[in-house]
């Protein structure tokens, strides 16, 4: 009696999580749909060789075993010795979408890449690669090999039986290995095996989407980033204004940084090794801004202290170095193993291989990449040219998938850098406007007329500016009360109001004025951020004399 398609044991459902059960039910649903499609097709319909991308994906997923990893130096050196001249060809023929460098350690990902090249060479028919992949399968997957070698033709139900796991379910990776090894072991597929090719292709697409979501960049809102930049500036200014030495201001940061250096020296690395690993090292303010922005993105309602941000900035830098090393390692390994160099790298390169001349050398003819089709058939196959064309188009499709994944990753990385750059640009432009206003204020103070304002002129000024929508932020309460008597329609904000800043109170105002001699740094930065966000004109008042203040406002808005 053949093994059932879903051989779950009775106690299986008690041992697995709800999430795992959901995955099995989704797989069953997918398989049921594919089976209905298979049984519904016309018996006389020509069967085209199935798309092997799903099988290839799962073949490579767990082909590496712990024992194979231990021996891999011997495996890769023998492979490179025999196939170093065909690496580019192997790499171009079969593209296997993978983000393993983002999810697994670099050495494992490199070994997996080499296994993919061996597998590609075997699919191309390279005799060494065929024998090598068979030897690896026999040596490191011996129990599975011993079961599979007994078959000369294999059915869907039998493959399900061979790929059962210890819980009574089935293992997609084992299924992929079995389907992938059959051609090399001269085992013929039964007609219904096309169901499994479609199932693994569907599952593969789902897992690729999952990996992309898992490795998506954490984005930071540009306004939040600007707000965090302001907060870091406030903390720096407050500490420096208090007269603290630079090292004392950032004591929490440098304590952790020094410990990191000590740990590196403990492993025989230079104390500044971390900063050689980071592709782009920003100045300290920007490092802390990025850290605070990530913290506020993850915990929007939580408050963080300056000391906490300093300490966590070190962790951020360590992660930055780790990620940059992995990215660089992946790039270099890809080039060494046959990946095409990005055309953009050629644009400004000083090196040109065509300029190198050597005697007694001749150019070797580059062998054109071949394409193969899976040896699955059901009666009469369509025209050979038609079949080959489908296989070639599939290869191109999967190559484009790989290119698209790379481009999406590059886009996300560039977008993150662009967003940060735009946030900084926005911040600097705002600070430039602020600096211009401060310079004008300083100039006016320096050239201020000491002559008293005539009463008739002053009355006219009051009349003209009384209906203007003015907001005064800061200033002593007595000074504010005097202005309130003259201009009851104006808005006056206390210096302590920064704890509950409501930017809506500033909307639709003609101008906002800050009283420079009586306002805290924290209050100022909170309100200037709200002013910038709403693009409201602003200025500064630095005199306690009511008449002089009114003349300044009159000159700004009327004259």
Q: How would you describe this protein?
A:
The chain is mainly alpha-helical and 559 residues long. It is 62% helix and 4% strand. It has 25 helices and 6 strands. It has a 4-stranded parallel β-sheet with strand order 4-3-5-6, with helices on both faces. A two-stranded parallel ribbon has the order 1-2. Helix 9 (127-140) packs across helix 10 (142-148). The chain is elongated, with a radius of gyration of 35 Å. The N and C termini lie far apart (100 Å). 23% of the residues are buried. The model is unreliable at 1-24 and 368-381 (pLDDT under 50).
What is the compact description of this entry?
The chain is mainly alpha-helical. The chain has 25 helices and six strands. It has helices at 12-15, 18-39, 53-61, 66-70, 72-83, 87-93, 100-103, 106-124, 127-140, 142-148, 156-162, 172-181, 194-214, 222-241, 246-249, 251-266, 273-277, 284-298, 306-336, 343-347, 384-446, 455-465, 477-486, 521-534, 546-557, and strands at 153-154, 188-189, 470-473, 491-493, 511-515, 538-541.
């Amino acid at each position: 009696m053949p093994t059932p398609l879903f051989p779950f044991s009775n106690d299986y459902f008690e041992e697995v999580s709800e999430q795992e059960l959901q995955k099995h039910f989704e797989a069953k649903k997918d398989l049921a749909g594919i089976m209905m499609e298979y049984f519904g097709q016309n018996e006389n319909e020509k069967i085209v060789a199935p798309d092997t991308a799903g099988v290839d994906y799962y073949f490579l997923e767990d082909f590496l075993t712990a024992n194979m990893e231990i021996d891999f130096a011997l495996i890769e050196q023998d492979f490179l010795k025999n196939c170093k001249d065909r690496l580019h060809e192997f790499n171009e023929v079969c593209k296997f979408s993978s983000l393993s460098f983002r999810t697994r350690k670099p050495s494992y990902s490199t070994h997996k890449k080499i296994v993919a090249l061996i597998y590609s060479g075997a699919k191309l028919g390279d005799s060494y690669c065929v024998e090598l992949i068979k030897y690896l399968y026999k040596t490191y997957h011996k129990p599975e090999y011993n079961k599979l070698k007994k078959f000369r033709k294999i059915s869907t139900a039998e493959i399900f039986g061979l790929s059962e796991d210890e819980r009574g379910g089935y293992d997609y990776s084992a299924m992929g290995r079995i389907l992938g090894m059959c051609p090399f072991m001269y085992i013929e597929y039964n007609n219904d095996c096309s169901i499994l090719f479609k199932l693994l292709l569907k599952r593969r697409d789902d897992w690729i989407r999952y990996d992309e979501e898992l490795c998506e960049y954490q984005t930071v809102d540009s306004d939040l980033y600007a707000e965090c930049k302001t907060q870091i500036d406030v903390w720096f200014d407050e500490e420096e204004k208090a007269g603290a030495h630079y090292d004392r201001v950032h004591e929490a940061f440098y304590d952790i940084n020094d410990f990191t250096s000590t740990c590196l020296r403990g492993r025989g690395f230079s104390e500044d090794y971390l900063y050689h690993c980071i592709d782009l090292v920003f100045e300290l303010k920007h490092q802390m801004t990025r850290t605070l922005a990530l913290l506020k993105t993850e915990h929007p309602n939580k408050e963080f202290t300056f000391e906490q941000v300093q300490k966590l900035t070190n962790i951020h830098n360590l992660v930055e170095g780790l990620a940059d090393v992995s990215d660089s390692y992946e790039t270099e390994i890809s080039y060494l193993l046959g990946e095409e160099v990005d055309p953009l790298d050629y644009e400004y390169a000083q090196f040109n291989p065509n300029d190198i001349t050597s005697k007694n050398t001749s150019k070797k003819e580059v062998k054109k990449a071949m394409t193969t089709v899976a040896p699955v058939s059901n009666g009469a196959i369509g025209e050979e040219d038609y079949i080959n064309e489908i296989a070639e188009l599939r290869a191109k499709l999967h190559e484009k998938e790989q290119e698209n994944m790379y481009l999406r990753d590059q886009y996300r990385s560039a977008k993150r850098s662009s967003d940060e750059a735009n946030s900084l640009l926005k911040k600097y432009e705002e600070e430039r406007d602020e600096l211009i206003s401060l310079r004008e204020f300083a100039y006016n103070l320096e050239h201020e007329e000491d002559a008293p304002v005539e009463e008739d002129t002053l009355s006219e000024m009051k009349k003209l500016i009384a209906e203007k929508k003015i907001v005064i932020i800061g200033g002593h309460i007595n000074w504010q009360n005097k202005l309130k008597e003259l201009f009851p329609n104006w808005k006056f904000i206390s210096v302590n109001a920064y704890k509950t800043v409501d930017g809506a109170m500033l909307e639709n105002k003609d101008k906002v004025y800050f009283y420079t001699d009586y306002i805290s740094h924290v209050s100022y930065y909170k309100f200037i951020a709200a002013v910038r966000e709403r693009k409201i004109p602003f200025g500064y008042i630095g005199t306690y004399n009511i008449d002089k203040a009114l003349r300044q406002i009159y000159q700004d808005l009327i004259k």
